[in-house]
Amino acid sequence: MTQAIRRGGRTTRIKNPTAPKVLATLRPADMARDGLEDDAMIRGVQYEGTPFVALAAESVELEGCTFDSSRFTGTRLIRSQFSDCRFNACDFAEVGAQEASSVAGPARPHH
After folding, report:
1. Which has fewest Cβ within 10 Å: 13, 31, 92, 108?
2. Residues with Cβ < 8 Å from 20, sequence gap 6 or more?
């Protein structure tokens, strides 16, 4: 499904975001092995209330993870990717991202 947005007299069509394809069973995060470190590849992890504060990480790949009430304040991510991840009530204040992407998973606003 697409929607039309008018800007400056032009109409642009954009795709609506699709829900992330998160695994039915996630394992709770174990920060000894599931931290955002350089070259980490993490799949199917549930982060709850996790503080990723003022971290710097490069080439992190996360797939099918959920983040509930997690804080990313001041974190810097370089060449990192979040695929099919879900974010609920997370804090992204002052996050820096270079060559980073989020694929197929919309962020839900903090309430």
Report:
1. 13
2. 64, 84, 85, 86, 104, 105, 106
pTM for the predicted model, two decimal places: 0.75
Closest alpha carbon to 78 in 109, 18, 37, 106: 37
Q: Enter the tokens of residue 30.
A: 């174990």
Fold of 20-103: Pectate Lyase C-like (2.160.20)
Residues 2-15: b if buried by 16+ CB within 10 A, e if exposed: eeeeeeeeeeeeee
Mean pLDDT score, 2-14: 73
Q: What are phi and psi of 52, to 5 degrees?
A: -100, 65
**CB of 90 closer than 8 Å to CB of 70:** yes
Q: Measuring CA to CA, how many Å separate 107 from each of 33, 64, 103?
A: 24, 13, 11
C-alpha 81/C-alpha 8 separation (Å) is 32
